Amino acid sequence: MKQFVVIGCGRFGSSVAKTLSKLGYDVLAIDKDPDKVQEISEYVTHSVQADAVDENALKTLGIRNFDVAIVTIGSDIQASIMGTLIAKELGVKKVISKAQNELHGKVLYKIGANKVIFPERDIGIRVAHNLVSSNILDVIEFAPDYSIIEVAAKEEWEDKSLKDLKLPKTYGVSVMAIKTGEDVNISPYAEDVVKRGDSLIVIGDSASLKKLEEKENDKK
Questions:
Q1: Whole-angstrom Cα distance, residue 105 to residue 98?
Q2: Which partner from 26, 165, 184, 210 sits 20 to 30 angstroms from 54, CA to CA?
Q3: What whole-number distance in Å separates Cα of residue 134 and Cα of residue 14?
Q4: Which pTM value belongs to this model?
């Protein structure tokens, strides 16, 4: 079973640590604020007061033995960078770091972060898509110009097969799955029919997804 160390127990870090712990994983939570360490202690396997820029402290805690380190320090960019660098140098296999902005993210990648996340930006993207088009249920951006979205089936799609809908030709998107309630049809066939209440998981570039949203807005 994977072991996780979360460095930084602010709102985002605490949420990550608690969720991983609920999923049954061993979680070590680290923060220099004793109050935050105390608050998170009942939710994780271990919680320790330590400074992310103190290499000896992190070494003593044995973070090199953890499979994944999540550096979620937000306000202190220097501490975020140093925490990421130290985790990599101590031998953590995978380091995921939170960034405030694109420049911060570039620096984190340069010093060895395996993945950089932008919680505020990603939430903003999801909110914006939902505001623009009521049929967009969720958005996952996995590359600068490509996203996967969950879109509610339009009325004119109901009782039609994917072959009849011709979504790749009409919108430039590809259907990855069809959700019917709790059931998910992965890699559906062209003959599969979209029913009332279904949602489609589609992938496309920014221009194609914008076209899909604009088509919906034109009907309002």
A1: 8
A2: 26
A3: 31
A4: 0.64
